[in-house]
From TrEMBL:
InterPro entries listed in its UniProt record: ENaC (IPR001873)
Gene3D superfamilies referenced in this protein's UniProt entry, alphabetically: Acid-sensing ion channel domain (1.10.287.820), YojJ-like (1.10.287.770)
Membrane is among the record's keywords: yes
Protein localization: Membrane
GO molecular function, one term: ligand-gated sodium channel activity
Species of the source: Diabrotica balteata (Banded cucumber beetle)
Transmembrane stretches, start-end: 243-265
Keyword annotations: Ion channel, Ion transport, Membrane, Sodium, Sodium channel, Sodium transport, Transmembrane, Transmembrane helix, Transport
Main localization of the protein described in the UniProt heading: membrane
GO cellular component labels: plasma membrane
Taxonomic lineage: Eukaryota, Metazoa, Ecdysozoa, Arthropoda, Hexapoda
The name this protein goes by in its record: Uncharacterized protein
Length: 275
């Protein structure tokens, strides 16, 4: 599981996207900071949660996003530990109802879908569902927003709410991250879109009187990816060797000393008692 290798890196090799919005399509009654686009950078197996994790691309602005992939791997030795200790799932350890592959984001979305269905009797249009499940219409908007707020509150503070005897708090999804994961960090810069930053060809093709333009530039900062790996700090063999080494260093302890201790605590004691 690795991201596709970038052949070119740096701002000069950025993906250059021009987004067009007709001024007649803009709802000016909405808040000014909500006008524009939302872009999500994530793994293809995850359904994007545009309302939570996104890059905002406002109208008439240029956004430059520097992308840094982060890879976390886990050694097979960690698999011997309980899930509660290593705090992650291997891919074969957890399955989901609506998704073929497990990820923390998909697990949370599935859990939120089940909670919304339980509280409102319907699910959002962006949620996975079974055949015959009702979609929430406008009259259920308040219920959906309340359910989403309570879900985030209860799930984030599951340890606190777990002691409360309330059916509504039973939303601990136990959605731990995967033991091997890829995430994308971004560093953003914004500036106003002015004619001077566009070349002559683009300026001639653009209709600034009737259209709002936004520019998004995406690029990788490095041609390689740094990987982190989870490993057990001390295994049983390491513990025994370190323990024996310390005893040997400070007390002259050895296997022969261990046999002598067993002898004096068992055979020698038994012999003295019966003689």
């Amino acid at each position: 599981m690795y991201p596709r290798r970038a052949l070119r890196v740096g701002l000069k090799n950025a993906l250059y996207v021009i987004l067009k919005t007709k001024k007649s399509d803009v709802e000016y009654e909405c808040a000014l900071d909500e006008s524009g686009y939302r872009v999500n950078i994530d793994l293809p197996l995850n359904i994007p949660e545009i309302g939570e994790n996104f890059i905002s691309v406002p109208l008439n602005q240029r956004v430059i996003a520097q992308i840094t992939p982060h890879i976390i791997k886990t050694s097979d030795g960690v698999k011997n530990f309980a899930v509660s200790k290593r705090d992650c799932y291997f891919e074969s350890e957890r399955s989901l109802k609506f998704f073929r592959r497990y990820s923390q984001a998909n697990c949370l979305l599935e859990c939120k879908t089940n909670y919304t269905l339980r509280e409102c009797g319907c699910v959002g249009i962006n949620m996975p569902k079974e055949a015959g499940t009702r979609l929430c219409l406008v009259e259920k908007q308040v219920c959906m927003e309340t359910a989403e707020t309570l879900f985030s509150l209860y799930n984030e503070d599951a340890e606190v709410w777990g002691d409360v005897d309330d059916d509504n708090t039973n939303v601990n999804c136990n959605c731990k991250p995967t033991c091997s994961d890829i995430s994308y960090g971004t560093e953003l810069s914004y500036n106003s879109l002015i004619l001077q930053i566009l070349n002559n060809t683009l300026r001639e093709e653009m209709d600034f009187e009737n259209v709002n333009y936004s520019i998004l530039m995406l690029y990788f900062d490095k041609s390689y990816v740094e990987t982190k790996e989870r490993n057990e700090l001390y295994g049983f063999t390491d513990f025994v060797s370190n323990f024996g080494g310390l005893l040997g260093l400070f007390t002259g302890f050895s296997i022969l000393s261990c046999i002598e201790i067993i002898y004096f605590c068992s055979l020698r004691l038994w012999r003295n008692v019966y003689q």
